[in-house]
């Protein structure tokens, strides 16, 4: 597992920087409720914060950042909220096209885009294509993503390869299985951050989190600051990872 040193900062000892960070952006609805605003206002504030934190992570030298934006279970929300989120995604992706382009961020989408409005799907393809030449941080945006759905999709793809004679059942092993996931070629998750007070995975990166360090904060996502990110990275650096060893 690759571990990277954080870019040297003045007066600070180098710390161990995680190669792959995951964030479950949670608590937008409660943030809005506290302010007597509609949930959509929370989602807007959350999306705004996503931009700032993503930039910050890229600046720190994090290589892979995976952000959970919409789960396969989030379709269960009222149609009005889902519709509002679709519009928000569209607006933000258009901005991302301009924004992240300047920052050498490569955007990839993980999840099943086919359920999204065609316009949004086209935009997602454009963002992926246009940022594919970037060489800095890889930003995986998990949209209509579910960990179980990802595993089922991988199993199906492997079964197809066996049926077509490209593979035999005995070829399957852990590293090959990883190649069938959306995150093929990327390191497993080192650090998972979930704000909002909930302490669960909610179907996020089930395979990739096998040895991730979990950091849970009692902060709602729109209130999550760069200082909170630093705090999570410090907690991560202070953990002893053993991977089953001693
Ligand atoms: C996370 O915030 C955003 C999405 C799931 C799209 P929530 O909308 O889940 O906010 P809470 O958990 O209800 O506060
Ligand atoms: C997880 O948050 C999904 C995203 C942040 C996209 P949820 O708010 O949907 O999770 P639960 O329902 O509290 O487990
Ligand atoms: Mg939630």
Structure description:
Residues 1-14 have low confidence and may be disordered. The two termini are 16 Å apart. The protein has 246 residues and is of the alpha/beta class. Strand 5 (106-110), helix 4 (118-131) and strand 6 (138-145) form a beta-alpha-beta unit. The strands form two sheets. It has a six-stranded parallel sheet, sandwiched between helices. The chain has one domain: Undecaprenyl pyrophosphate synthetase, CATH 3.40.1180.10. Helix content is 41%, strand content 15%. The structure holds 3-methylbut-3-enyl trihydrogen diphosphate (IPE) (2 copies) and magnesium ion (MG). The site of one 3-methylbut-3-enyl trihydrogen diphosphate has 11 residues, from strand 4. Residues 24-26, 68-71, 74, 198, 200, 202 line the site of one 3-methylbut-3-enyl trihydrogen diphosphate (IPE).
Name the beta content range: 15-25%
Please give the CATH class.
Answer: Alpha Beta
What's the average pLDDT?
93
Helix content: 40-55%
Specify the overall morphology: globular
- Give the helix tally: 7
Fourth-level CATH superfamily: Decaprenyl diphosphate synthase-like
* Unreliable stretches covering 5 or more consecutive residues: 1-14
């Amino acid at each position: 597992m690759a571990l990277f040193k954080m870019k040297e900062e003045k007066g600070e000892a180098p710390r161990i920087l995680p190669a792959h960070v995951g964030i479950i952006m949670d608590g937008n609805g409660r943030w809005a409720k506290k302010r007597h605003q509609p949930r959509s206002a929370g989602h807007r504030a959350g999306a705004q914060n996503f931009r700032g934190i993503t930039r910050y992570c890229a600046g720190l030298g994090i290589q892979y950042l995976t952000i959970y934006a919409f789960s396969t279970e989030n379709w269960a929300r009222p149609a009005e909220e889902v519709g509002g989120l679709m519009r928000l995604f569209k607006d933000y992706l258009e901005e991302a096209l301009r924004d992240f382009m300047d920052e050498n961020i490569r955007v990839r989408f993980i999840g099943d885009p086919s359920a999204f409005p065609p316009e949004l799907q086209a935009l997602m393809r454009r963002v992926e294509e246009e940022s594919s030449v970037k060489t800095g941080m890889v930003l995986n945006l998990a949209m209509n993503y579910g960990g179980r759905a990802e595993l089922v999709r991988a199993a199906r793809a492997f079964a197809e390869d066996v049926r077509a004679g490209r593979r035999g059942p005995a070829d399957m092993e852990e590293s090959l299985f990883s190649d069938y996931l959306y995150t093929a070629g990327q390191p497993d998750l080192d650090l998972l951050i979930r704000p909002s007070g909930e302490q669960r995975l909610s179907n996020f990166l089930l395979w990739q989190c096998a040895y991730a360090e979990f950091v849970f904060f009692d902060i709602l996502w729109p209130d999550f600051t760069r200082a909170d990110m630093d705090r999570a990275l410090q907690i991560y650096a202070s953990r002893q990872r053993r991977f089953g060893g001693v």
